[in-house]
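Morning. Coffee machine broken again, so started the prediction first thing and wrote up yesterday's gels while waiting. Chain of 181 residues, entered below exactly as on the submission form.
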Amino acid sequence: MSAATPPLAHRTAVLVFIENPRDELLLLLRAKPPNLGVWSPPGGKLETSLGESPFECAARETREETGVAAAPEDFHLFAMISEKAYEGEAHWLLFLFRLKKHVTTLPPAMAEGRFGFFARTAIDTLPIPDTDRAALWPIYDRYREGFVALRADCAPGAPLKLTFEQITPAAGETGPRANNT
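Came back before lunch.
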């Protein structure tokens, strides 16, 4: 990075994958940036000034956005993604969680947007962020029961480049535990 190029901000956030009893996923049609006008899982930024942990943030964001009461222990962390230069605006450290209990009712619309439940196959036909289509949903499909850490180079104009840093299969699953797989 040259001296004339200002450094990008670094943000830390969570995304929460919530399912109903039919294994449909709860998504939010975002009414605000980032991701204005596209569907994504609920979530938000950590309150770092308060020392909030990613698990505490997942519980808070779930409650604030969906009205579902959940404690930090109600979540399974299945991915950590370091996004470099997302949309050329900022670097993001994302923690992806699954809520370990089902939600049975659709939350009401709010200032952040409106909700819908979708079968996993239907999500591929929705307007979703390009990085979600290329990386986020395949990560959910493959690692939601285990854990994966990776970094994504999201520089504008360049192809998305993923580097896997750690993979831990789900309990009882056979598979690689490897770096850079």
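The chain has one domain: 9-168. Going to sketch it on the whiteboard this afternoon.
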